[in-house]
Amino acid sequence: MSAIKETLSAYHAENQDGGFKLNQYDVKEVIGQGAFGVVHLAVDTTTGTQYAIKEFSKTRLRRRDRESQMRNNRGRVAGVSNLWGSDDDALNDEDPLRLVRKEIAIYKKLVHPNVVMLREVLDDPEHDALFMVFEMCMGGVLMDVSLSQPCEPFPVDKARRYFGELLLGIEYLHANGIVHRDIKPENLLLTEDGRMKIADFGVSEIFLRGDDTMKRSAGSPAFMAPEQISVDCHTYSGRAADIWSMGVTLFCMCYGKLPFVGDSILSVYKAIREDVLDLPQEEDPRLQDLLTSILEKDPEQRIEMAELREHEWVTDSGRVPLLPYEQNCHRVEVTDEEVKHAVKSIHNVVATIRALAHWRR
Length: 361
Prior knowledge:
This protein is α+β, with helices and mostly antiparallel strands. It folds into 2 domains: 12-136 and 333-360, Phosphorylase Kinase, domain 1, CATH 3.30.200; 140-328, Orthogonal Bundle (Transferase(Phosphotransferase), domain 1). 34% of the residues lie in helices and 17% in strands. The chain is built from 12 helices and 15 strands. The chain has helices at 58-73, 87-92, 98-109, 156-175, 238-255, 265-274, 285-294, 305-308, 312-315, 325-328, 336-340, 349-360, and strands at residues 12-14, 20-22, 25-34, 37-44, 50-57, 118-123, 129-135, 140-141, 178-179, 188-190, 196-198, 205-206, 213-214, 236-237, 344-345. A hairpin with a 2-residue loop joins strand 2 and strand 3 (25-34). The longest helix has 20 residues, at 156-175. The relative contact order is 0.14. Residues 1-10, 75-93 and 355-361 have low confidence and may be disordered. Belongs to the protein kinase superfamily. GO terms for molecular function: ATP binding; protein serine/threonine kinase activity.
């Protein structure tokens, strides 16, 4: 397992190109934007290695987790994680990062060839910024597909390879009590050598004691499972919903389009709940069986991970077997000390950066 590097000091400096430095990271241009903040390209000046630094809003992260805690207070489902002690403690604790600290500690320990690795977290306690340093995936997103934008499908061997890597990564997360909840091609990144890695844990949930019961929906509408958007379903299995999203992603890889579409989000939801899966008649019967089994609208009848990893299409009838479960799914344990030190403080770095930017103007 690769060690997470911890630095002993924090400092800042202005760069000639208008960027800034956080510890040993030379932070450069913005390369992306998400719901919680922007993503910068950064270089570790001690090694020359490139990283993606996500700048998050602590207020938004804290609000997300406080809302989750309050929902659980109104009717907790047994087994859904309460990672920070009692609910009252979580809501009243003066530490603004208490609600994300253990989640960060767990993600720092997730080391898998098909999961984007979090290297470290840097915090300015005086301001709203929280910086997460991730490995850089230079190959970009797996594919760019949407309701209005189909794309070129992958050859069957490439689709099989990427789906196998997705399966191993999600299996590893599930074994460690994490449901991703937003699996889609946009959140699957490629390394320079073509390996696929799962990214973006912004709406993920942690579950305990094997009970993955979820009470609220999250994710991208076209990739959500029928049970997540059913007015009659108040709880659902997070793992089963992840498997559905894997099926939608596989359909995109094989056909370059989404399986269920509509002119609005409501019409997409209606198609997900009611439309019959349309597959080409000439398709490989193994792929037909796989997609039908994954995109089964009844989560109780949907294929599960243990059967999925042995499916004939996934393994090409045994010619390309996956890594055994025991080798793929080492368990992650997090100590109290690791939780305590999950976030590194950067005193007043952000204030200084803003002052420098104002001075330059």
